[in-house]
Amino acid sequence: MADSQRTSEPLNFVHQDEIWKAHVKMEKDAANVWPNKWGFLTEAYKEYESESVRLKEGAREELPHHLKPPVTTQEQHNQVGPSPTVPRTTQALIGWRSARPDLQLEKFGVVHHGRRSFLKELGWPLNACI
To answer: In 3D, which of 84, 102, 80, 101 has the Cα closest to residue 93?
Structure first.
């Protein structure tokens, strides 16, 4: 958008090129100065990395047999049964899989959040917190 508003102004390509050269020169100068100002960070990072590798190698110990997870396959966890036949109408498509109890997403029953009153559980009158 800024370029479309500047179409009425004449462009000075030489001036734009000088600006670009100044930016490139600033970046090169900053790259040359960076090791002197911030080079200590690379040394600290190398020290941290070597210490981290050393600690990881030292921490690798064998778990006791009773703490190791059992070796299972993906088929043991996911048991997929046959799908029911696809409905003939688009209206019947809505909820056609969840109508069967073995295909419902709620495996542990219906969720009843917010249907109980804390005051009723304590046996207090409903206006006790007002």
So the answer is: 84
Phi-psi region of 109 (alpha: psi -120 to 50; beta: other; left: phi over 0): left
The CA-based diameter of the chain, rounded to the nearest angstrom, is 85
| Structure confidence by residue, pLDDT tens digits, 62-85 | 777 788 877 777 666 666 677 778
DSSP SS3 for 117: coil
> Whole-angstrom Cα distance, residue 117 to residue 126?
9
Phi-psi region at 124: left, alpha or beta (left = phi > 0; alpha = psi -120 to 50): beta
- Residue 96, classified by CB atoms within 10 Å of its CB into exposed (0-12), middle (13-18) or buried (19+), is middle
Decide: pTM greater than 0.85. no
Whole-number Å distance between alpha carbons of 130 and 59? 56
